[in-house]
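User: My instructor asked us to take a sequence, write out its structure as tokens, and then describe one feature of it. I'm not sure where to start. Here is the sequence I was given:
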Amino acid sequence: MTLSGAAVLAAVVALAGCGAPATPGGGRSAAPTTSVSSSAAASGTGSGTATATDSPASATATPSATLPEGWKTFTTSDGKLAFDLPSEWVVKDPAGQTPQGGGVFVEIRNPAGKSMATLRTNMVVGAECMKKQPYGMYDSEQLPALKQAGGTPRFTFESRQDDTATDPAKMTMLAYGITSAPEPTGPTACPMAHFFSWPPSGAMFGGVYDPFDTTPGNPPNVDTPEAYMETPEYKNIRTMITSLRPAA
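Assistant: Let's start with the prediction itself. The structure tokens for your sequence are:
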């Protein structure tokens, strides 16, 4: 059971503070040029555009060696990061107001319009552990391609339990993303901080899981994190986020 996706994302993003990073962690406008290369394009089929509103690609990243068939590679507009995603998924760039001082802000949606994840860079972040809560850690993988001097970030799919909530839909918050925060130990953990160390300060790439969301585009009959992890949607999201790398 979980809080609404928008509320979870707001809670995670709210951890982005003003000042130097402590625990690494966190409107729409016209879409500018984006950068996409795809396995279909490599074979001479398909297009290299990311969204219906994107203008033609201005640059491409080298696709990863394990790019799944029918996937494409997206390069951020500043040319610094790239990731792979299913060809039918749509990239909105920019997805909203970018951080002060620049950076990128993109959102990835499935064909039904459901948000799969957002990527933001150049975020000044700082998180305080005001209250620990019971947690669940369902998935975790280190991402060496994003290693910085302070350590190696990891992809996680995790939850936090609010024991004070009486509404079942608000008892548990679940989210997936990249984090530089230490992996929790013991029965409780600090709030989720899906932010990772990335020059010049920090970045985020992740999204939320809401089994109470019944809008079109959601996997049917999925009501637990364990069941969600077996769906093609989660597997595609995981492959996409863990493919994030410097755009060489």
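For the description part of your assignment, you could build on this observation: Residues 5-23+131-197+206-228 form one domain. Try explaining in your own words what that tells you about the chain.
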